[in-house]
DNA sequence: GGCCAGGTGTAAA
DNA sequence: TTTACACATGGC
């Protein structure tokens, strides 16, 4: 799959069928609490590894705000071992769950009231994780900028100074691309395009045609 | 055996 | 305010 490096690259990704997801927002079980846990678990790790940990937690009945707030972090770390960085991630997950519980009470209230600044002040939540939670758990109109996106734009010859600059540029541009998905809410359009970039980037058959 | 995977925090320059 | 490094496992 050779995709021309041009302004309408996102449309090409769609035409190439990279938007064929199981979940309407691409991220598995979007709009639920487990997106928060998955967002931490998948840091610098393949999604498959993060998902194995999620399934383990689900089996043990631990995939809830309450359970993860109370579990011993040493026990938790053993359940998420396959996702790598398991000791630090166990601490991050628990402290975030405790903070959400204390500050908002439950997941629904969290989604309704949380803002970027609060999330970013939590240990283990950087810009990408923060925006992943806002878009995929809370369905906010926020575009997630990850390494794939940065590399794709770089390969296309665009240069940016910061995460925020890329995010603003993408969000502005994607409002125009919303016409490709009539009737979809903007948050979902952001979600889908980020998902397409990830899926295309992971696809070994995907190649960018260098600019002429 | 080296390199990478849906990053982040921290210390040192 | 940048840069380097630690965090850790599993698959290729």
Describe the structure concisely:
The protein is mostly helical and 212 residues long. The chain is built from 12 helices and 2 strands. The relative contact order is 0.17.
CATH topology-level fold name of the largest domain: Endonuclease III, domain 1
CATH class of the largest domain: Mainly Alpha
| Strand order within the widest beta sheet | 1-2
Level-2 CATH architecture of the largest domain: Orthogonal Bundle
3D architecture notes:
By secondary structure, this protein is mainly alpha-helical. The chain folds into 2 domains: 2-26 and 143-209; 34-137, Orthogonal Bundle (Endonuclease III, domain 1). The protein has 12 helices and 2 strands, in the order βααααααααααααβ. Strands 1-2 form a two-stranded parallel ribbon. Helix 2 (34-41) packs antiparallel against helix 6 (86-104). The radius of gyration is 18 Å and the shape is globular. The protein binds a DNA duplex (13 and 12 nucleotides) through helix 2, helix 3, helix 6, helix 9 and helix 12.
């Amino acid at each position: 799959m050779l995709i021309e490096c041009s302004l309408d690259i996102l449309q090409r990704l769609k035409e190439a069928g990279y938007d064929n997801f199981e979940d309407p927002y691409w991220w598995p079980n979007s709009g639920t609490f487990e997106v928060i846990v998955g967002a931490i678990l998948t840091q610098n790790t393949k999604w498959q590894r993060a998902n194995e940990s999620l399934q383990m937690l689900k089996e043990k009945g631990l995939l809830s705000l309450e359970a993860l707030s109370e579990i011993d972090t040493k026990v938790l770390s053993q359940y998420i071992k396959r996702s790598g960085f398991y000791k630090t991630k166990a601490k991050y997950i628990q402290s975030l769950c405790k903070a959400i519980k204390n500050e908002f009470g439950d997941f629904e209230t969290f989604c309704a009231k949380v803002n970027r600044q609060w999330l970013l002040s939590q240990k283990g939540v950087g810009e990408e994780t923060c925006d992943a939670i806002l878009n995929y758990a809370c369905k906010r109109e926020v575009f997630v900028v990850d390494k794939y996106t940065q590399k794709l734009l770089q390969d296309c010859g665009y240069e940016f100074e910061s995460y925020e600059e890329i995010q603003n540029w993408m969000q502005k541009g994607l409002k125009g691309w919303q016409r490709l998905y009539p009737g979809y809410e903007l948050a979902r359009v952001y979600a889908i395009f980020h998902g397409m970039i990830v899926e295309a980037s992971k696809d070994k058959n995907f190649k960018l045609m260098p600019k002429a």
